[in-house]
Amino acid sequence: MKIIPPKPFTIEKGNRAVLLLHGFTGNTNDVKRLGRYLSDRNYTVHAPLYKGHGGDPNTLIQTNPIEWWNSALEGYDELRKLGYEEIAVAGVSLGGIFSLKLGEERPTKAIVTMSAPALAKSVESLQDRIIDYTIKYKKLAGTYDEQTDQPQELAKKFRMPSLEYLQGMINETSAKLPEIQAPVHILRGLRDDDYYCQSADLIYNSVKSRIKSVKSFINSGHILTLDKEKELVFEEVYRFFEGLQWSDKKNPVS
Prior knowledge:
The protein contains nine helices and seven strands, in the order ββαβααβαβαααβαβα. The chain is α/β, with parallel strands linked by helices and 254 residues long.
């Protein structure tokens, strides 16, 4: 079976721009429906695809967190090139911590984090995500063999050497959370691992934003934008952005 790889997407509508960031081992399909929801309500949206993501696992493990972060920065810069001065950012999982990192390093109108990691996380738990990704990819491609593709065997073939660096990047971003003053809205699913619920509390208590809030979704797990309450999540993100004071101006593109 031929797998059609996901792509970055941009939908230009109004003068309010939102950068949408997917998670580790995820892709732009994680945020596509949210993007459509916002664009239908006159927001311009752009979602970059991190380098190595959305394709075969061999390609993924040959990339590293710096390259994924650069993909997020390039997405931000793409909106700036299009003339948008005020850029909000919303991210799922790793995209959530990247959203906070953007808030520390670039001017951001506001930040929405969804299931963002902010506490120390074991490298093995990250490695398990690679194995899950590999199994799902093989099943989609029709190459999965139940005998030879056992997790312990795949772990020997698909080890990502840069996962310790990823953990360091998460820790560094968390340490700088007090630098964030932009409005922050933190979303979490109560059916997610406790780690992410505790991370939400850490983010809320650490940022120095005058406008900050936490919203929990009772029947949702990790990828809030794809789970049972996704429509409620979309509305929550939209209402948060609507509550901000935007200039509604866009610079002409030279």
